[in-house]
UniProtKB/TrEMBL annotation:
Binding residues for L-histidine: D81, M82, T83, R111, Q125, E129, Y274, Y275
Biological processes annotated in GO: histidyl-tRNA aminoacylation; L-histidine biosynthetic process
Listed SUPFAM superfamilies: Class II aaRS and biotin synthetases
GO cellular component, one term: cytoplasm
Keywords for the protein's UniProt record, in alphabetical order: Amino-acid biosynthesis, Cytoplasm, Glycosyltransferase, Histidine biosynthesis, Transferase
Pfam families registered for this protein in UniProt: HisZ-like (PF21996), tRNA-synt_His (PF13393)
PANTHER family: HISTIDINE--TRNA LIGASE, MITOCHONDRIAL-RELATED, HISTIDYL-TRNA SYNTHETASE
Signal peptide: none
HAMAP family per UniProt: HisZ
Miscellaneous note of the record: This function is generally fulfilled by the C-terminal part of HisG, which is missing in some bacteria such as this one.
Molecular function (Gene Ontology), one example: glycosyltransferase activity
Name the UniProt record assigns to this protein: ATP phosphoribosyltransferase regulatory subunit
Amino acid sequence: MSSLFMFEKPLGMRDSLPEIYETKYIVKQKMDKEIKQWGYQFIETPTLEYYDTVGAASAILDQQLFKLLDQQGHTLVLRPDMTAPIARVAASKLLNEDLPLRLAYNASVFRAQQREGGRPAEFEQIGVEYIGDKTVSADGEGIALMISSLEKAGVQKYQLSVGHIGFVQAFFEQILGTKERADALTKYLYEKNYVGYRQHVDNLSLSSIDKQRLHDFLKLRGGEEIIPLAYKLIENGSGTQAIDDLQQLWDILLDYGVENQVRFDLTLVSHMSYYTGILYEAYAEGVGFPIGSGGRYDLLLAKFGKNTGATGFAIRIDHLLEALGSLVRKSDIHCILFSGDRRKEAFELAKQKRADGFKVITQDINGVGNVDACTKQYDEITLLVGKAGMEVVK
């Protein structure tokens, strides 16, 4: 093994420099406020969880888990997502009343990378979990809240794609006969490899009618007009409940007034294996990855001993910043440069300005190598040097 360079970081880990940190802070504050205004309560869970509980319940692949042993020999994991930990908390401590829970979080998750490839091993998410409600109304609320949160963060050109994993599973198994064959075809959808999908379908031992149905499936993208097309592809009633859900969802989104930000894409699938129904992803102009995703996961709580419905979403902060484009300026700081004989005066002036809500630093002028560079870095410079009065440079 080669020796590490002095400034080298673990694979996939990143530093957040001041401008990035400040931008993240402002954006998260805006979304925090919006989520709270929808009645969601924020909680925190441990960074470390047991592998046999949260690690096993998570939909993240085992090779992507950061594992370590505690002193008792138990295998621990750095939390790979937030849905499984919140499901653990809800099932063990919060689901005592017959009422839905609206929970939210703002936290980092950890997923090991096999090679650099620009993908982070640690990234921040802000999201919600709506637990204890199996109705489509809960799905509609999640989509509307994600849209509202993105707009509060400042994202302007974006779109949500909405699908239903139950429809995909029922439709594929109806034609292909087994879950294994359906999963093999679904993999092409996850990879968005539609050329490979078509080639795979053409090579299947199926009737020409069934092959055409599988090809027509790729056309199920658009607005409400795709609903009757989806009904036509289904036979013997299997999968129609999923389409009914999508029709009801569309009516709910109309009432929220967010239909212009949403389109159906029934080819949408997710690497999160616990999704059971409606799922969605948010895309922004100029960003190659979803900036957020969510969906229904009605079976996850059962792994922690509670049989109830749940839905939620997560917004990726790093992808969100890419969508926003510009960073906030770091220089909204007032700098007071002082000489030793006016130090107390500088400290009192800084105290007064901080009380008035300004960001202020005090700097001994002898500790500044380049005063001109200092004036370029800060919004306002006040000189308290020698016996002269206060001089505001800019």
